[in-house]
Amino acid sequence: MSATPARRFPLLLGPTGTGKSELATTLAERLNGEVISADSRAIYRSMDVGTAKPSPIERQCVPHHLIDIKEPEEHYDVMEFRRDVLIVIKDILSRSKLPIIVGGSTLYVAVLTGAFFDGPTADPNLRKRLNAQPLAELRHRLEQVDPEAAARIHPNDPVRTVRALEVYELTGVPISQWQRESRIPFPYQFLKIGLTLERSELYARLDQRVDQMLARGLFDEAKRLKTWLRPEMQAYHTIGYEEFFEHWDEKLSYQQAILLIKQHTRQFAKRQLTWFKPDTEIHWIDVTRKSSEQVLAEALKLTDTDSV
Known about the structure:
By secondary structure, the chain is α/β, with parallel strands linked by helices.
């Protein structure tokens, strides 16, 4: 099997909670494929319940890659992910299997598809927090994390200083590195298949999923992580964990933490929808009131057409 225009690799997109992981597994079973996760939190070990990783049964049936590859305290950025995907795709192809990428993290998807070149879109909350800090402190921080950008940006330029730090905080990659590396085209093409769901049903499903996570031990899992995770670590800022961290820091009650987990999850899904919506290359499948068999049939039809 080779990467040619006639055989693009399936890339499953869409908001969290629409059934992408399940579809990826069943597609892989039908198409002699293996799954590559494009989830920025599934990479971490010990973060199982809160990241909604594929079940052990799904991972037994079909090989899944780039899951549980890092400890929560370790750094991992989108450029490392891009390089790892290249290695995994070559490995899968060497065994005459079909790579199937399933993505929820928009930055991870973007770095594969070339959706942007200069880093992520602005994050209003992060930008507000950065703008509240003295420029001298921001400048010192930029000199530490991205000396190349600091040398280029004038010390009295708060706008570009904040933007450079924003990119680093969101991606773990200095903006100077983004500007060099993200313009290199990814050598493979993808068949983008998006899953969508009526908004009210999606939100109800997400609320229910949080309840299920709580029943499966999310609170205790977060409590174990709290013993060694720190705010400067990427994994610390994960929905479902950070809210409980604030509870133990006496900033939220237990019930307030749960309500915020549900609210933040819904907001995350909305941001994903907003990000994916303008992409005209995505073939959308509305999964509202459809069985998993119906969704699989529609996805298979798209892959069949693409391979002709």
